[in-house]
Amino acid sequence: MIKGKEDITDKEFEEILLPFYNNYNEYLIKFVIPDAVAFYLANGHSRNCLSDCPLIYHINSALDIFNVRCDIDKLIPEIEQILKIKYNLKIMDLTKLKMINYN
Questions:
Q1: Which end of the chain, N or C, is surrounded by fewer C-beta atoms within 10 Å?
Q2: DSSP line for 12-42
Q3: Is the dihedral of CA 40, 46, 47, 50 positive or negative?
């Protein structure tokens, strides 16, 4: 809410709060979500907790906590890069999730 106000007008929402929320969502999508999803996948892989369902299902499960709409097709390359750099993992199959360690 806007400081000092209990209720706001539609105009205040569109001019003040909506840009604030959009900016926050962009930050999550750009900086937080790719890293969090990569951790989710790497952690699940190391604990043998991931089923062989499509990658998109696992990404959606990891995204549920954020309540943010994302273009998953744009996230996948970032997630793959983070998996490679931070976790030494490579996704081999997107349709039946299969990951391997880089040698």
A1: C
A2: HIIIIIHHHHHHHHHHIIIIIHHHHHHHHHH
A3: positive
Q: Identify residue 73 by its one-letter amino acid code.
A: D
CA atoms within 13 Å, Cβ hemisphere of 82:
19
Q: Which residue has the tokens 């890293």?
A: 35
Structure tokens at 1: 């809410």
What does the mean pLDDT of the chain come to?
92
* Cα distances (angstroms) measured from residue 23 to each of 6, 17, 46, 57, 102: 23, 10, 34, 26, 36
Stretches where the chain sits below pLDDT 50 are: none
CA pair distance 78, 85, nearest whole angstrom: 11
How many CA within 13 A on the CB side of residue 90?
5
Phi first, then psi: what are they for 38, rounded to 5°?
-60, -40
> Six-digit token pair at 60?
């959606």
